[in-house]
Amino acid sequence: MTQRPAPLSDAGAEPAARAGGSLLNPGIGKREVWAWAMYDFANSGYTTVVLTTVFSAYFVGVVAAQKTWGTLAFTAALSFSYLMIMLTMPTLGARADARAGKRRLLFTSTVGCVLATVLLAFTGPGDIAWGLFAIALSNYCYCVGESIVAAFLPEIARPEALGRVSGWGWSFGYFGGMLTLGLSLALVSWASGQGQAASQYVPYVMVLTAAIFAIAAVPSFLFLRERTPASHRPAQGMLARLLAAWHETRRDFVDFRLLLMCGACYQAGIAVVITLSAVYATEAMGFTMAQTMLLVFTVNIAAAAGAFLFGYAQDRIGHKLALSITLVGWIVMIGLAYAAVQAWVFWLAAMVAGLCMGTSQSAGRAMVGALAPPGRLAEFYSLWTFATQLAAVVGPLCYGLVTWLTGGNHRLALLCTGLFFVAGLAVLARLDFARGSRARDTNILSA
């Protein structure tokens, strides 16, 4: 019989953490936690440089030659990759659980993302089809790895410390993004000083990003262990697995289902910020690429601080309240950025975005770990990935459609983005965390 774990309280369990003497599960050493966090460190360079800063602005401004449909084309390629993740990730996660194969899937996806990032280096002016193919492939592989590495969190951290340990990894990851971005900024500044055009130096930035990803991910494959035994659940087809899992959340995991709906809402807004902030800075605020890179570098510092510090607060005040605070912060950020005419106001909005980005993404990952049943971690994190990738399809695509229909009105597109955070806050109000924890414990016993 499986031993019943201690029930979780949404108010946190700080006394239990102190009594246990450790925030980590038995048998977990500091080296393994570091190896797990190193994957956040490794893959953050991809999102920071490729999606947020350099390649997104490069594609719209240089590859697509600032055509009005450039932003829409870029967001459509990302949306296609997110759609493929939505359709395939639940099956991949279920198979990883069935075969105890999370590490293998993590390795495969990492190799795919690194190689596809190198392919981005061969995208020059007018190479629209090639650029869209490479960005879609690299982003697909990145998303698989991001989902699978998150599934290791409940194996590493005690239930009452999920927020803190998730915050450690997420904040450490931002330093990886800053390292990659800092080296890229130095490269861009040097190349610009030599009179080189973006089409000359951006390929080197892509190769640099891929190399850092590959090197920094090595500790994860050397020291991160697979602890959950194979579930041997029978494999199902892609759509069958997806529909079965969705119906199961309605029957047995109502609050996990609400969390998925909440995540689908607010992650749509975050996807816009991640993928289109550089485009907004250059098109709406007139920033140069060097200025945009410096802005994103500073935002990453705020995001790292937010993820680390708020992880402790999350375990103390409760997951639901913590996420609610960050969603209110996102709404404030949208208002500031929309009203920004002077550069300093936009910088202030960017700082708020950084704090909210680190806290909201780390908080969501921890909440999934608190509500997901052991033995099905990869599968349930895959459902979370499905929800967030649905958001990543809808959010940027809506932004791109608004800019296209309004003749390039990026401010109005950003204002519309704020509706996603409002919707997420409304869904979160219905979530009962204590009820969700009881459902998780009940399903452990019946497994």
Topology:
Elements: H1 14-20, H2 30-63, H3 70-99, H4 102-120, H5 128-150, H6 153-156, H7 162-193, H8 198-216, H9 218-223, H10 238-252, H11 254-283, H12 289-317, H13 319-339, H14 343-371, H15 377-405, H16 410-428, H17 433-446
Offer a few descriptive terms.
Growth Hormone, Chain: A; 17 helices; 447 residues; disordered N terminus; mainly alpha
The low-confidence parts are: 1-21
CATH architecture: Up-down Bundle
**How many DSSP-defined strands?**
0
| Main sheet makeup | none
| Total of DSSP H or I helical runs spanning 4+ residues | 17
CATH topology title: Growth Hormone, Chain: A
- Proportion of strand residues: under 5%
Helix content: over 70%
Class from secondary-structure proportions: mainly alpha
Q: Could you please describe the fold and organization of this structure?
A:
- The protein is mainly alpha-helical and 447 residues long.
- It has one domain (27-220, 245-446): Growth Hormone, Chain: A.
- The radius of gyration is 21 Å and the shape is globular.
- The relative contact order is 0.17.
- The chain starts with 13 loop residues before the first helix and ends with a helix.
- The chain has helices at residues 14-20, 30-63, 70-99, 102-120, 128-150, 153-156, 162-193, 198-216, 218-223, 238-252, 254-283, 289-317, 319-339, 343-371, 377-405, 410-428, 433-446.
- The longest helix is centred in the first third of the chain and has 34 residues, at 30-63.
- It is built from 17 helices and no strands.
